[in-house]
Design goal:
two-stranded antiparallel sheet; Serine Threonine Protein Phosphatase 5, Tetratricopeptide repeat; 204 residues
Length: 204
Amino acid sequence: MMQQLNRYQQALLGCVLAGFVSSCAVQDKKPDAEPAETKAAQDSAEVIYVDAEVQKSFEQAMQLLQGGNVDAAIPVLKSVIAREQRLAAPYVNLALAYLNKGDEKQAQDYLQQALAIDKSQPQANNQLGLLYRKQGKFKEAQKLYQNVLAAHPEYLPAIRNLGILCDIYLRDLDCALEQYEKLQQQMPDDKTIKIWIADLKARM
């Protein structure tokens, strides 16, 4: 039996887990919830037919991760990848699992593999951008954030992280202000963003 899933729906499964939301969102500040899937994304998403056993294993891995059992989830996710290489989500979740264990090298490898499958995958771009920033690869991080926002312009974690990157690391205040104002449009009651904008304008 085959289950009909699309690439976008599969990818979003990777970041709904309570223990991993912060890794998928923003490490500097409070995490944001994943934005709702837009109709355009649904319409353009490639339909993937996944074997029911593969889907069952993936869901098992999600339950293990949700329960905090990272060590048990890793081999299950690897078994999913061994049987199905067309979806980015298992690679993203493996990366997050390894990040949880402090293994950034393995995490980076799986994020890069996820992007080889789906170059605009939101969580993979965002999380790899955070790793690149940590490594001092600021321009590479900027390209990743811009890449995901070209495909998903309302993806809040990437907007916020690009703003922080431009503000603190690249000293590109115009870029930072643009991102912070985008955040404010989507989160008009967030007092922190108002403070960021006021501070930035004072420095400009």
